[in-house]
Amino acid sequence: MFNGLARSFSIKRAKNLKNNCENCDGKEAVEAMAKNAKKNDLILRSSGIVNVDGSKNLASVFSKRGEKGVNQDCCIVWEEFGCQEDMIFCGIFDGHGPWGHFVAKNVRESMPSSLLCNWQETLAEASVDPDFDLESDKKHHRFNIWKHSYLKTCAAVDQSWSSTGDIVFLANVGDSRAVLGTTADNGNLVAVQLTMDFKPNLPQEAERISQCQGRVYCLDDEPGVHRVWLPHDDSPGLAMSRAFGDYCVKDFGLISVPEVTQRHITSNDQFLVLATDGVWDVISNQEAVQIISTASDRAKSAKRLVECAARAWKRKRKGIAMDDISAIVLFFHSSSSSFEQIQPVVPPAL
To answer: Is 225 strand, coil or helix?
Structure first.
């Protein structure tokens, strides 16, 4: 198979294949092969057998979950690998750690296709090498090409994990807020605000509104609460400078353009809080992080934050109707390796 395929490459076709791989066409071709192989039952990812009609090979697969929780072992058998009748790819992957099952499955899905693309590219590069002579030492060349392909594939798969799951992308319109709970160098759990509250009195927001003939000011009975008003009418009194809808002030400085940011998540980062201004009007970032970190049940941490905010409204905003209060808490690590070892102190007032 290998010899015949190698001899079938002309210099022109080899160059074209190399260019295609570099332009991702090779990857698309490999993905098409994988899709076709799956359709024809040539790929097995669970317990069972693979025995293609006319093939002398039979692959038997079985996996049994142990007593440690989720089964972190996974495997794959791909007959006629790369559309070659006498080639089979077999891979078995044993995950470890709290997310081992996820990693193992991801590697199982990505490695065969990556290997196939790298093998094609490596073979194409070798074919255009003037010093390449497959017939002179077939075993040596065959081994080196596969070795190089595996080295590239494993490096690529490993590198892909350096940017998987460790970046959070944030898009914010309005005055809801994202806050990160992270462990500082001294071991304390601290809050890091990741988004900006788009209030009308922010300098860049107020300037835009003013340039569009909108107005920003506070009502006498709401000191410190800046709102957006029409040029010649005391409405609508919107307490934010960016929002969906509110078309009556869209021509006067209100926009719906989000601020998009990203944050690299490290092992020190414990959880992310997303909450409406009903929380942040009465609860500080640090208080929110402390409330969440001392929740006895992670599943109830968002509820606990909302309930604390509701009590704070009654205490701090007497006579003012309580706003809607909502929160999401996203934890980054398993409970065994998280902030539960830290002992933050919740302010007595909460």
So the answer is: coil
